[in-house]
Amino acid sequence: MAAALQAHRLFLTVSTSSDPSSSCTARRPRRSTAAAPCRAALRVPGGLQASPAASAPADLALKLDWIDARATPAAIQDGTAAERLRAVADAAADRAEMHDIIGRQRDNWNHLLLHSTNSLALAASALAALAPAAPGTVAALKASAGALLATAAVTMAAVNRIQPSQLAEEQRNATRLWRQLERDVRHRGEAAGGGVTDADVQEAMDRVLALDAAYPLPLLPGMLEKFPKTVEPARWWPRRRPQPLKTRRSKSFGRRGGSSSATTNTNGWTPELEEEMRGLLRVLRAKDEHQYLTVGELVLTLNRGLAVAGPALAGAGAVAAAFIGSGAGEAGGWASGAAALCGALAAAANTVEHGGQLGMLFELLRNCAGFYRKLQEDIEAALGEADVDRRENGEVFETKVALLLGRSASDLRQFREMASPSFRDEDIKDYAGKLF
C-alpha cells in the first residue's frame, strides 16, 4: 500500500533532481496548432514490498508518449470546401452592394439627363420663335437656337443608346438576386455543417458566373443590348443538362405499387401531384411567359421608334434654325416655325421615352418572362428525375411553386386536367401566376 501511495506522489509532483539514474523523463514534441493527446504509463517494479524501505523512487518509471494527432485528408477537404463556400457568400454580398450603388447612380442619370435634354430643346424652341421678332439680334438668337438643338440631338442619341432607366432596372434586379444568392449559399453552409462538398461549391460558383453574365457591371463594353432583334426572357441561372420529360408515371411509382396515399414512401410525390405539375408547366409556357414576351415586343417597338424620332427631330430643328432670317418675308418665318416645332416635338418624344421609362418597362417584362422560364425549368428538372427519392420533397416543392405564383397549394389542383393531350392550348383561359 505504501508503494502505491509513493508512486501516486511521484506521478503528481515534478521532479527537480538532476540525478542521471532517475528514470522519470517526459519528452514533448514541437508545439503544433492541433492539440496533441498524451498517453502516460506508470511502471512499478515487480516484487515491490509493502514496507516503506523497500520502495525507492528510483525503482519507479513514468513514461509519457505524445501522440501526433493530425487531421485526416477528408476533414481537411471538408474544411477547405466550407471556406470556399463562405468566400462565395462574401463575394455575393459585395456584388450586391456594388450593384445597389451603381443602380442608384444610373437612376440619377435618367432623371438628370431627362430634364437637361428637355430644357435644351424647349429653350431652343423659344429662341427660334423669338428670332423673327428681334431683327437686331436675329443672328445671335438663331445661332443659340441651332447650338442648343444640336446639343439636344447629340445628347438624346447618346441617352437613347444606353437607356438609363433600363440600366437602373437591371441593377435593381441584380441587387435582389445577389442578396438571394448570398442567403442561399450561407444557408447551404449552415445546413451542411462540416459536410460541405466540392459539388456545393461548384454549384454556387456556376450561379455567380451566370449572374455576372446576366447583369454586367461595366457600361461600355459589355453592356446588354438595349434593342435586340428578338425578345428573349432574362436568364440569371446556370443552364441545366437537358432531361427528357416523362409523359408517363415515374418508374418509382410502379415499383411501389402506385399507391397515392402512401406519401411517406414516395417522398411526398403522387401521380396526382405530377399531373398538376405537368398541367401547370403547360399553362406557364402557353400563357404567362408568352404574354410577357408579346407585350415586351410591343414596348420594344415603341421605344425603338421614339429613340430614332427624338434625335431626328432635334437635328432637323437645328438645320431649320440655320435658315432663320436668311430669307425675306415668309421664308424666314417658315424656318423659325419649323425650328420651334421640331424642338417641341423632340422634347415630347424624349419625355414619353425616358419620362415613361420605356427601357425600364421592357427590362421588367424580360425579367418577368425569365421568372416563369426558370419556374418551368425547375418543374421539368423535378419531373425529369425518375426516382422520387432523389427529388425534393413533393409537398415542399408544391408549396414553393404555389408561393411563387401567388396561389395556395389547393389552387394548383385545377391545372391537373390541362396535362391531358386532349386539352387544347386555345382552351386555356386562366393564367398560372397571380403575383404579377
Short description:
Helix content is 60%, strand content 3%. It is mostly helical and 436 residues long. It is elongated.
Which terms would index this structure?
2 domains, 60% helix, disordered N terminus, 10 helices, 2 strands, 436 residues, mainly alpha
List the domain count as a whole number. Answer: 2
* Biggest pleated-sheet summary: 2 strands, antiparallel
Radius of gyration: 38 Å
How widely separated are the two ends?
87 Å
Q: Characterize the quaternary organization of these chains.
A: single chain
State the secondary-structure class: mainly alpha
The topology string of helices and strands comes to HEEHHHHHHHHH
> What overall geometry do the principal axes of the alpha carbons give?
elongated
How many β-strands, per DSSP?
Answer: 2
Helix fraction by DSSP (H/I, runs of at least 4): 55-70%
Low-confidence stretches: 1-42, 47-58, 245-252, 254-264
Mean pLDDT: 81
Count, helices: 10
The side-by-side strand order for the widest beta sheet comes to 1-2
Structure commentary:
It contains ten helices and two strands. By secondary structure, it is mainly α. The chain folds into two domains: 2-12 and 23-70, no CATH class; 74-229 and 274-427, no CATH class. α2 runs antiparallel to α8 and α7 packs antiparallel against α8. It is elongated.
